[in-house]
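Lab notebook, bench 4. Still working through the backlog of constructs that have no structural model yet. Next entry is a single chain of 139 residues. Request: give me the structure tokens for it.
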Amino acid sequence: EWLEFRSVVFRFPFGFMGVMLGGVWKRGGNWLTSIGLGSILGSFGFFFRFWLLSLLLGQDLWIYLTTQVTEFLEWVFIKLGLLAQPSLPLIQALALVMVFVNNVVYLFVVHLVALLLLDRIGNPIPRPPKWVRVLLDYE
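Model written out:
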């Protein structure tokens, strides 16, 4: 039973993301497209796992995430000298943005690793944007 649960948690989004990235790369899609689509899929996957774990634990994990983001925003407000308390819509919007940005960074790293590894085994992915080639000194 535990293995079945783990397979569901892993398959969505990572299994679907692998299939999606493979399809986009095979069709020659650029990095912006594959990272954008992957980030959307990864964000949905995060919230699916979040919901499933909340359901199984019998706890509302969104409250935990909201509390952590609230603490972070209050710290930022103090550092900026703002004597205000962050509103709930701001806190929840920042939580959503943080999940999306986390997925963008994750997929960028996946692309870098895939670029280096898949080129070596003769199954290259589409070339990175010019600024990435400059950073990596990659031709």
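Notes after review: The CA atoms of residues 9 and 49 lie 6 Å apart. Helices lie at 2-26, 31-57, 61-80, 88-120, 130-136. Flag for follow-up if needed.
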